[in-house]
Structures are given as structure tokens and as C-alpha cells.
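Our collaborator T.R. sent over the components below with a one-line note: 'Predict the complex.' Nothing else. No constraints on interfaces, no templates requested, no preferences about which chain binds where. So this is a plain run: every listed entity goes in together, and whatever single assembly comes back becomes the starting point for the next discussion.
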Amino acid sequence: MRRRVLALAQIAPTIGDLAQNFAVHQAKIAESQAAGADLVIFPELSLTGYQLQDLAPEVAMRRTDPRLAALAKLTSGGPSAVVSFVESTDDHRLFAAAALLEGGEVRHVTRKCYLPTYGLFDERRFLAAGDAIRATRAALGGSAAGDVGIGIGVCEDFWHPTLPAILAQDGAELLINVAAGPARGASVDADQGLGSAASWGTLLRATAALTTSYVAFTNRVGVDESLIFWGGSRVIGPDGVVIAEAPLFEEALLLAEIDLDEVARARSALPLLRDERLELTRREYDRIIATRAGLEEA
Amino acid sequence: MNVESGQAPHDELAIDPEMVAAMCRSFITSHVASTGAERVVLGLSGGIDSALVAYLAAAAIGADRLVVVLMPTASSSPSSKADAEAIVSDLGCQSEIISIEAPLAALIANLPAGESVTPVRRGNMAARLRMTTLYDRSALHRGVVVGTGNKSEILIGYSTIFGDAASAFNPIGDLYKTQVRELSRHLGVPTQIIEKAPSADLWPGQTDEGEGGFDYPTLDRVLYRIVDRRLPLEDVIAEGFDRDFVTRVSEMIRRSEFKRQMPPIAKVGGRSSGSDYLYPRRRPKLD
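Returned assembly:
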């Protein structure tokens, strides 16, 4: 059995206050360790806050930043952690990034590929979009390094179903989404009375079922400007059934035990990933790309 | 009732009041914390909107940190004062009565001789005097002024810019009047306040619906279609709403856009407030 305990840190980051947010991360990592967690997952831009606008370059960090390295040190002998920050690069681009901290160091960084810039969102104005979708392997408290395949997406990334699909094809058994999802669409007709909670709920269960993977979704709470983040962090099994779920709008540390051998069993019973036609998908996308570019007749 | 199906019509504006109350509490708590204010200050009129905000604020940060200010004029209805006092008594919050009659009369008396003041001008003066009073009280109490305008009146522009529309933050400005009523019932706002006809209380017997020639349930359904659902007016009319009314609502929205925005600043330099100098309104000092 490959059992792991996940801790979803549903926190309310303070916008722009790196010192305060680092302190919260340290406390939650310690709390997760005390609770026996193997991995603690923080929400999108957990170290900086979300609605940064022109503050983004001022709070940005290199992935080698000593403050991040110091936080990573806590994962030596403690739980692994996924934290999120604004990453700056040598060529002065800024990304919404999520880092896997494990064994005392920064092991892997994912950059948000899909930056929503519509409606209440304005991310592309301030940030660059990532250009890579990569799963990675992690120990997550196990004895063998790289025992577990994980894939990390940042919020909107999962609304483009190719992204979690590619992560699963690339070896992820546990899909992690770190989110800063603003509440909207309050209506008695929606699940939990909230349109955004209902649509995310549907999306996350479908993503787990279609990729026959565990999905861990950590969404933040608290408020940035007009936006009220709804929380509702949850863990979903490879059958699409919710295993554990945090409350709406309140800070929480949600613990959930998963058994990654369930992924193997789910994929034997329902070999969707095995049967995926990557070459067919690529061929059809290539055709559509060429047609849109006027290189091929419609 | 839907005549054909025999079922009550679907209420598209119905909310889960506990869920929405949780959102509003979170919003208030967070903004009070980020401003560093010790108290919330709001103008309590005796109407439902300010009553609801008072109940939400008391639930969010405690009634002991809520200061409500009653600011009547000579023409304010006595029942408004009684209703406001019922709220104060129910919540156990601090309250102040500061009549704005004397400054209002002084403003009017100070006008050029022979100039008469229309009810609208007088109403705007009263709204801005209340704003002045609230901001001054908030300085005294180390508080922050919380807004009490609802989505319906914000969208049709039924408010005074820099008057009742002025606040540090507004927890109910995205709730239609019908939703304000639903949430108020849930939070235990006194029934007489929920059921009385909404009024700006500018002159005796005035009501919003009488003055504006609409009823809020219909107005809200039209606003919801135009604003939230982005429907073309013809589609709204095709659903059975009165053509003249839909057109009038659309015009009220169009004519009041300026009330929902900060004034534009002429862009002259390289980086300008409101255009390309964009920060969260509260931010900590960075190292």
C-alpha cells in the first residue's frame, strides 16, 4: 500500500505581506507535521496574495530565493509542501508559480499556463503564461524518492482539460490544483448556494474520473479588494468521489488519507488513459492549427 | 403562479442566505482588519439596507465595535427613528443621534436671496451632510465608514454621488433589493423594517417605488436580465416585461454610469492613478 496523508491548508494570505505569509506557512507546515501529514498543499499565490496588480514585481521571488530555501528546509524530516508565489526570471518575466518543496529543497516548479483575463480576472496584464506541462515524481513521505507521480496545476489551468490530461499521461497519479477562486454566482439553485463552488465541484470530480487520478484542490479563503475567496478545498478519489471537503469561507487544515495503489486498480478497471489516442489528438490539433493559420483548407 | 403548470414561478434571484451572510461577514472582517480600524461606523436610517449592514457588521466584528449614527432632518418620518432605535436595542450597539437639520437649514439659508431649492437638491445636500457627519464620526471613533447601498439602487443611480454612495467598502452593493429582503429576514432584522415601503425619507410619505414608478421585484428581474445575463432589451421585452419600463430602466443604467466609477484623472504623465498605477488599496510596507 502507498498510503499518504494530505493536508490542505485553506488559508487567507495577506496581500503583499510576505513576512506574515511566510510565518503562516511555517505554522501550517508544523501543524501538518504534528497531524502526521506527508504533504501539505497551500493555495495559489499563498505567499503573496492574489489581487496584486502593480505589486506583483515587488513581491516576486526567484525560485532560488533564500526565503523560499528557508521554508524548504522545514520539509527536511517534515512533510513535503506545495507553496505558491510570483516567480521572477532572468529575463524579468513574472509567473504565477507553484513549487514542490521536499527533502529540504525546492524540487519542482510549475508555472501557471492559463491566465484568466476576462470578467473579474486581469492576470495576463501583470503576468506571463507558463509554457510547460510536466508531471514530476515525489517521495511524499515515502522511503523511496520518486515513489509518487504528481502533477500540479494552478487554478484556471484545470479549466483547460488538456492540462490535467497531459499531466496524467505524463505520469501523475495525484493531480494537485492550487487555487485562488473568487466566489460568484450566489444562487439557491447552485450546489452549496454558490455558482463557482458548483462549477468547480463538477470540474474536479470529472477531472478525477476522466484521468483516474486523485485530485487535491486547495482553494484560499479571505478577501482581496472586492473578491471573496470561497475555500471548499477537497480531495477526490480516482473514481470521482469526494473523500474530504473543507468548509466554505473559513480557514481550515483539511486532512485526508489516500492510497495511491487505488490509482492502479482504478486504471485496471477503467483504462481510459491507456486507451487515449495521443497521436490522433495531435494529428487533429495539427490540422486545426494549420487550418486556422490558413495553411490548410478547411 | 404559472397558470399552465400550476407551479410558482422560478425565483432566479433566490439566494442561500446563510451562504451569502458568510460571504458578507468575511468581507467586512477582512476590510476592517486591513484598514486597522477599531470600529465600523454606519448611518442608520431606519430602512432595510442600513439595518441589514448593521446586523452583518455586528455578526462579523461584534456589536461592541459597531457605531450607528442616526441623522434625521425635520422632515424625517418619526417611524424611521423608532425603527432605527429598535435595531440599536436589538443589537446592543453604540448609537448616536446627530440631527443634520441645522446644517441643512444653514446651507439653504446661505444660498443667494430668493433662490428656491428643489427636493432633489435638498435631498443631495442632506445625503452629503450625512456623509460629512459619518466621516467625521469615523475619525473620532477610529472607525471606518461602511456603505449601505444595494445593487438595485446602484444600478439605476438612485443615490447621491459622494453622499450616501460614499464609503470605505460596501458589503451589500451586489445584492438586489429583493435579495436584501431575503437576507434581512434570515438575520432577524425586525419585520416592520423589512415590510415597510422603501423610502429615501426626503419628504413625508415619499417612497422609492412611488417616486420611481416601479416595484422592486420587477425592477430587479429586469436589472438581472440586462446586467447579469447581458440580454438584449428585445429579449427582455419578449419575456413579457413592459417595453416602456425596460427601456426606462436601461436608460437609468446608462445615465448613471459615472456614479459607479471614480472620476477620471487626465493622463498627462508617465504613470497615472487610475490608469496604469494600480495597487491594492491597502498594502504593507515591504522590506
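Summary for T.R.: The first helix of chain A runs from residue 18 to 34.
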